[in-house]
Amino acid sequence: MTDALRDAVPKGFKSRVEERLGRANRGPVALWFWEIDRVLLLLTFLLIAVGLIAVAAASPATARRYSEGAHQIAPMYYFWRQLMWVGVSVPVMLVVSMLPPNLARRFALGAAALFLLLLLTTPVIGVEVNGAKRWLGVGISQFQPSEFLKPVFIVAIAWLLSLRGRDPDLPMVPVTGVLTAIVGATLMLQPDFGQTIVFGSVWMILLMVSGIHTRVIGSLVGLGVGGVVAAYLFYDTARIRIDNFLFPDHGGAGSDHYQTDMAHATLTGGGLTGTGPGGGTAKFRLPEAHTDYIFSVVGEEFGLIACAIIAMLFLAIVARVFIKLLDEEDAFRLLAAAGLAAQFGVQATINMAVNTGLAPSKGMTLPFISYGGSSMIALSIGMGLLLAFTRRNPYLHRSPYIVR
């Protein structure tokens, strides 16, 4: 800081900041400030800010779509609702990120047991929306157990796999496989094929990070391919979506291919620089413009360059985590952080692939960009856990050659 800038800051404010966040201070907030990955936190805040702008752009289209007769929805209704969810979610993320790693692990394990139980009850007592039972009703609101289960389940799987470091004979690979299969089968009953892919993909990534033999990985990949084939043959939801994607002539205005076609047309409608905020027209014909297809709305109004910047933000977050884990010595923290970053990246990749027409529709939100209370709070919990597990003592020098 230059002398001019230093003099411009009020002395009272400077003294309070130095007192609360100075390196000599050993209070919990000061320790959190110096140990947290501030670059990762900044990237997350950038995504949240971009998400608010994107929801503001998509809100008028969604409000018009869901307005009926006397029930008229204000054009910016979904933006104000999202702003409220951000106001709830950001403090949650910061509080979770302040948890010591051991306490964060215990919190995740307890939450994983709770939300797994809730997920198992969802196909039976869940609220049906658009033909799917993915939500549980709580009073006048609803929430999606699978969204909250994702981050804490990943931490639980990471903890189980880390136990192999203490005793290689522990059957943690089949145990975690059975747990993941139970989650996947329950999700397919809802049905929610997209979330099943996320859980299965992250489990495979965690197995690879944990150092499992390549022959086992090859066998699991073969089983995965067989599972997709079996899903196509015996699971109507998967077959319909794959057929609509591969054979578009068979689909109508309500088909998945119609949605992906409209998403692609909206995405490319603004060219490189976009039509400008509020200038998009194709978004008014786009289903779920504020959730599944918000990436396309960004493309129309802000351009393909803005879409590329968003994709690079996601890549930067995942790369930042994996690079930081290169010298991590604790097996659990390595697996937990890698799994959380992988979940974040896989979900974003699936959503962007659907919007660009590279994958069939899966009902997958874009992390921190799409509208949604359950999604925003669950993602904030996941990012809070990721920040907690990547906290580092700035004075501790680690060797990349030491493996615990």
Q: Tell me about the biggest sheet?
A: 3 strands, antiparallel
Outline type: globular
Identify low-pLDDT runs.
399-404
Question: Strand order within the widest sheet?
Answer: 1-2-3
Determine the N-to-C terminus distance.
40 Å
Q: What would you call the structural class?
A: mainly alpha
**What is the tally of helical segments?**
16
Rounded mean pLDDT is: 84
Strand content: under 5%
- Domain module count: 1
Write the layout of secondary structure elements.
Blueprint: H1 3-8, H2 11-21, H3 28-35, H4 38-65, H5 77-97, H6 101-125, E1 127-129, E2 132-138, E3 141-143, H7 145-162, H8 172-189, H9 193-209, H10 214-234, H11 236-246, H12 256-268, H13 294-302, H14 304-324, H15 331-355, H16 373-389
Helix pairs in contact: 4-5, 4-13, 4-14, 5-16, 6-7, 6-8, 7-8, 7-9, 7-15, 7-16, 8-9, 9-15, 10-11, 12-13, 13-14, 14-15, 15-16
GO molecular function: lipid-linked peptidoglycan transporter activity; peptidoglycan glycosyltransferase activity
GO biological process, one term: regulation of cell shape
Subcellular location: Membrane
Give a quick set of tags describing it.
16 helices; three-stranded antiparallel beta sheet; mainly alpha; disordered C terminus; 404 residues
Account of the 3D structure:
The chain has 404 residues and is mostly helical. The protein has one domain (35-66, 73-389). It is built from 16 helices and 3 strands. A 3-stranded antiparallel beta sheet has the order 1-2-3. Strand 2 (132-138) and strand 3 form a beta hairpin. Helix 13 (294-302) crosses helix 14 and helix 14 (304-324) packs antiparallel against helix 15 (331-355). The two termini are 40 Å apart. 41% of the residues are buried. Residues 399-404 have low confidence and may be disordered.
